[in-house]
Amino acid sequence: MSDSIHLISVLGIIGKSEYVSYDLDDSGARSEVMRYPFDPQAIPTDLNDIIEEGFTRDKTHVILDLGNIPWINSKGLGTLVMLFHAVKDHGGTLVLAKPVPEVARLIETAHLEMVFQIFESIDKARQHLKSLRASEAD
What we know:
The chain is α/β, with parallel strands linked by helices. It has helices at residues 46-55, 74-89, 101-109, 122-137, and strands at 5-10, 19-24, 30-36, 61-65, 94-97, 117-119. The chain is built from four helices and six strands. Helix 2 links the parallel strand 4 and strand 5 (94-97). The longest helix has 16 residues, at 74-89.
């Protein structure tokens, strides 16, 4: 049984960025599914649409790669919370990977580290989700 993990790399600021969607296999190898170019006309739910598209491929666990986000504002934090609930409502888990120190501090200041599990690498996030999936199967 393959992992049900969907990796989304944000290549700039949430809501003003290009996104790349990947499926991860059991070994952690990435298969690019789609590249979503920045569209200034896009509504703030563009990340939600990408996650919903992953659900159609049975990708219920999501890693959001924040490594290329230099900063985040309250609207971006609100988007992360919205995504967390969307994934949870589908029986999945959303985790954050590789936030830069400024973004990690803001998440902590907003006390959202109590909501999100944050990992220093995509591989550590993947291993965590894989262990969750194994415990779900037991």
